[in-house]
Amino acid sequence: MIAEIISIGTELLLGQILDTNSQYLSQKLAEIGVNLYFKQTTGDNVERIKEAINIALDRSDFIVLSGGLGPTGDDCTKNAVSQIVGKKLILNESAFQKLKEIFDVRGIKMSENNKIQAYFPEGAMIIENKNGTAPGFICSIKGKHIAALPGVPFEFKQMVDDSLIPFIKERAGGGKVIKSRVLRTIGMSESRLAEILEDIFNDSVNPSMAYLAGNSGIAIRITAKAEDIDEAEKMISHLERRIRDRIEGLIYGVDDETIEESVGKLLRAKGLSIAIAESCTGGLISSTITNTAGSSLYFDRGFVTYSNNAKIEMLSVPEKLINEKGAVSEEVAIEMARGARKKAGTDIGVGVTGIAGPGGGTAEKPVGLVYIALSAKDCEKVKEYRLGKLRLRNKHLTSLLAINMLRQYLIGVK
Amino acid sequence: MIAEIISIGTELLLGQILDTNSQYLSQKLAEIGVNLYFKQTTGDNVERIKEAINIALDRSDFIVLSGGLGPTGDDCTKNAVSQIVGKKLILNESAFQKLKEIFDVRGIKMSENNKIQAYFPEGAMIIENKNGTAPGFICSIKGKHIAALPGVPFEFKQMVDDSLIPFIKERAGGGKVIKSRVLRTIGMSESRLAEILEDIFNDSVNPSMAYLAGNSGIAIRITAKAEDIDEAEKMISHLERRIRDRIEGLIYGVDDETIEESVGKLLRAKGLSIAIAESCTGGLISSTITNTAGSSLYFDRGFVTYSNNAKIEMLSVPEKLINEKGAVSEEVAIEMARGARKKAGTDIGVGVTGIAGPGGGTAEKPVGLVYIALSAKDCEKVKEYRLGKLRLRNKHLTSLLAINMLRQYLIGVK
């Protein structure tokens, strides 16, 4: 089967947004072995959308449109499809009821505009949108399919995962499958990792290995091409084992697993509780930890002690210590970790202080200097990091490194 | 002049990389008033690249190819262009010399493969690549142009800025300029906004209006087409004023301005300080506020009171109140805001409690129920919201809505 993606939206042509939807769907199609030879992008214009669909119908079997299903006047994807397949737009009673329910739950009056979102080309199969008001749909024409999904990324992804990919998979027949697995590491540079894994890298053709430097450490992507998913998985697992034998302690997660999920599992398994005291990260560590559902089982509280007074009043950091060593110091980080643990009565306390930038740096204590400390019954440690000059990146990296210190403590890495 | 972009690379079709080049060029073309109605993406395959170019030649005047100019066997953009324009690839002596110099400077032996990068269709104009080894080129056919640039983003951008855009600008003639401005709103649904602004929307052709539903509320994009940037700006400002007259309180920022920046400016201008008490957002509000450089001037501290004990101990929320009304209640939100303000000694306190999900909901208090409260000397208020079922989205929206409550207080919206 040959698929084709058409991304719709004038904002894409003006370069106002990045087309992340077509990237996401491309990955998913590759995973199920569906070929994709072309993608197109056009604006919110019925004639141009029709032109793009006609080009795609000439060369592809399954066409996926993304965008242009909103309730406002500039959204016209449905009209284009309706004209192409020669079917009128008619009200779908069940979609209309669901739409009404959404508005009832939200306690908002449904506007006339929204009713448009319950109209579909006659005979179309409706695709449920769990995250928004615009359902998608699939039409058939001459043995080919045209699917239309909304452009809002988190709506699009849910519908791709839950409905579109299963639908296509059923009809795709056998092609070669491309499957990837990503091992997420933190705490070592790409070049150092590459040195340690050099021989494995060099003799890995299929499955192949690639390093991806990202915002959350270095990821190692393993990609296998095989007759089916099972075979690909087996090939990947074999290479994964070889890599893990060398760097197990650095790998905090697989694929989309986040470091906070991995730490959450460890805390639950051990029945331990935590409290976080943070200065330069401004609440980001607590927020990251509470991104995981069920985190209330182990996360008790966070102290965002931005001012010195807050450090003194909330965590009992001695004022004298701050005056002598400075708020950004090893000693204050440790006192913050101790204070968090003590005030909250938790098993573990984490304390973080640093200079996020862009201002506030000195020759001795430059922007990017960060201290991360951990306090527990059987362990107390503090580490110094010298990160970069970018405020948001410093906050993000500090948060990752702090959660990784927690992870290392929990798995017994010194 | 109508331009068209063709992005080339199998990695784009596999979803391994995001197409940032075409976004960048789209922005640049809009800025100089060149229309872009279509973009295409295809893989490293001569026949498919030719097909894409032929489609583009039918409807566009200036075609820009990105990618497929590397030294390896899978790069075949040049061959495709050479066949389309009917010109042989010949060695360009001056490009060859420059290539040799690059390798000399780097102290690397030049491989035979690299020599390919000095071949171009006969008669092509060479575009210098200051950041890499692959020069670009421009060919003409039947009064139209085909330009090819390498796919590495920082090479592509340099060549777009230094060579391609000046070249196109010279030939675009009296092209009109397209300029956009985005008004960012929060707190009202797209359909409700559309109702309130319906008449303005309907009589806005140039400048035009569009709604963009995103993760941070609904954005309203105003786009003007004019003779020059100044005129476009004027047209945009006029429409912006009409929109603001209706929904001023909902607009928190313009273009890339974030709500935390806008609130930060207001707090600094008024010399007010804040403290945040949060439960379901787990520190995200404090973290968001401290994303802005200089936020230590007004942000004193945050209380991440995840457990009930934390609410009682850190904020003096009466235990009885939590038992009677529940931790997620209007009353507790207000007590949290008061507690934050009092404990920190700040001018303003914000308190947030809710059920982020996916667990913890009941029929009476479903997932997504959130209370946001603000306490100041001259004002105390609390609002109830019913958001969706997605944990991270609930955290994000709650944070936005809380910061917006702060903003509305600061600008005097009741």
Architecture blueprint of SSEs:
The structure is a homodimer of 414-residue chains.
Chain A: E1 2-8, H1 10-13, H2 20-31, E2 35-42, H3 46-59, E3 62-66, H4 77-85, E4 89-91, H5 93-106, H6 112-115, E5 119-121, E6 125-127, E7 136-141, E8 144-149, H7 153-172, E9 177-185, H8 190-196, H9 198-202, E10 208-214, E11 217-226, H10 229-247, E12 251-254, H11 259-270, E13 274-278, H12 284-289, E14 299-305, H13 308-315, H14 319-325, H15 330-344, E15 348-354, E16 369-376, E17 379-386, H16 391-410
Helix pairs in contact in A: 2-7, 3-4, 11-16
Task: Report on this structure.
2 copies of one chain form a homodimer. The first copy, chain A, is an alpha/beta fold. The first copy, chain A, folds into 3 domains: 2-171, MoaB/Mog-like domain (Molybdenum Cofactor Biosythetic Enzyme, Chain A), CATH 3.40.980.10; 177-254, Alpha-Beta Plaits (2-Layer Sandwich); 259-410, CinA-like (Maf protein). In chain A, 43% of the residues lie in helices and 26% in strands. Chain A has 16 helices and 17 strands. In chain A, the strands form 4 sheets. Chain A has a 6-stranded mixed β-sheet with strand order 2-1-3-8-7-6, with helices on both faces. A 5-stranded mixed β-sheet of chain A has the order 14-13-15-16-17. In chain A, strand 13 (274-278), helix 12 and strand 14 (299-305) form a beta-alpha-beta unit. In chain A, helix 2 packs parallel to helix 7 (153-172), helix 3 packs across helix 4 (77-85) and helix 11 (259-270) runs parallel beside helix 16. The longest helix of chain A has 20 residues, at 153-172. The mean pLDDT of chain A is 92. At the A-B interface, helix 1, helix 2, strand 2, helix 3 and helix 6 of A face helix 2, strand 2, helix 3, strand 9 and helix 8 of B.
